[in-house]
Design goal:
Layout lengths: L5 E4 L2 E4 L3 E2 L13 H13 L4 E3 L13 H12 L8 E6 L1 E3 L6 E3 L3 H15 L4 E6 L8 H13 L3 E7 L3 H11 L4 E7 L8 H10 L3 E5 L12 H4 L1 H10 L3 H12 L12 H8 L8 H11 L3
GO molecular function: oxidoreductase activity
Keywords: Oxidoreductase
Pfam families: Aldo_ket_red (PF00248)
């Protein structure tokens, strides 16, 4: 299997694997220090990763909204390389306003605008490269929130539009509202552990030229990623055959599913994202890929 090292999200060309920055800000005692988080971003960029994914609600507590975006912005500003080709994606539409775990959804025109403006300021950019509506707000018409994103794009507050945690019907609505080429990306959970609903979403996006970005592509930070080779023996077997990590094999398999797939594994240590980025160069045989798909893919 030969995997292209770069893939497209709307007008952007990015590395085939991105960095999920959420672990910098959430995870209790497992969160890295500020210095380690910045070092992890730098390690990703040095390894050729050119897509960083963040969100306004990635924060240690309800009153520190934007924590993750600030770390990403600082890391980019302090990196010594050329950041002109680095794409930063953020998300809005979930609120944290009163208690530690009080996550609520607000897809109103007013709130999405407020959230996007705040994210733009924290990231220190004129326009957010890629901005996702984070989760559907079931209290309002889906197309209404998509129209709000279209307005943000027209005003130059955001450059490309994405949606996250969306089913096929919601993706279809977004495409209808935005027109051909208007929806740049869909970010949904997808991994060997979780793909019973998201594989059809991946396929729909591929058919319509929309980038599909798996979050938690290794199975989650609560042990799923570490144990992926044990939970799925075929992945462990292929990893041993290639002297690679099970995580690299998992990401290489996901990349093989379609040329619109861009996994965004989370990382809290430089070594983790460097290991993940190396999956781009891992070549698996068709037989190995089919064996993994047969064992883990619900299709």
């Amino acid at each position: 299997m030969t995997v292209t090292k770069q893939r497209t999200i709307g007008r952007y060309t990015v590395s085939a694997i991105g960095l999920g920055a959420m672990p910098f800000s959430m995870g209790g005692n497992t969160k890295p220090s500020h210095e380690q988080a910045v070092a992890t971003v730098h390690a990703a960029l040095d390894a050729g990763v050119t897509l960083i994914d963040t969100a306004d609600i990635y924060a240690p507590s309800w009153d520190t909204m934007g924590h993750n975006e600030r770390i990403v912005a600082e890391a980019l500003a302090s990196w010594g390389g050329d950041r002109s080709g680095v794409v930063v994606a953020s998300k809005g539409g979930i609120t944290r306003k009163s208690a530690e775990q009080d996550f609520r959804r607000d897809g109103s025109v007013e709130y999405l605008r407020e959230a996007a403006l705040a994210s733009r300021e924290r990231l220190g950019v004129e326009s957010i490269d890629l901005y996702y509506w984070h989760r559907p707000d079931r209290h309002r018409r889906y197309g209404e929130s998509i129209e709000a994103l279209a307005t943000l794009k027209e005003e130059g507050i955001i450059t490309e539009i994405g949606i996250s945690n969306a089913n096929v019907e919601e993706i279809r609505v977004a495409v209808e509202v935005l027109g051909d080429g208007g929806l740049a990306a869909v970010q949904n959970e997808f991994s060997p552990r979780f793909n019973h609903t998201s594989y059809p979403e991946l396929q729909y996006c591929h058919k319509h030229g929309i980038a599909f970005l798996p979050w938690s592509p290794l199975g989650g930070t609560s042990g799923g990623a570490v144990a992926v080779g044990d939970r799925f023996p075929v992945i462990g077997e292929v990893a041993r055959a290639h002297h690679a990590s099970p995580q690299q094999v998992t990401l290489a398999w996901e990349l093989s599913l379609a040329d619109n797939v861009i996994p965004i594994p989370g990382a809290s240590k430089p070594a983790s994202i460097v290991n993940s980025a190396a999956a781009i160069d891992l070549e698996l045989t068709e037989a190995e890929l089919e064996a993994i798909s047969a064992a883990v893919l619900n299709r």
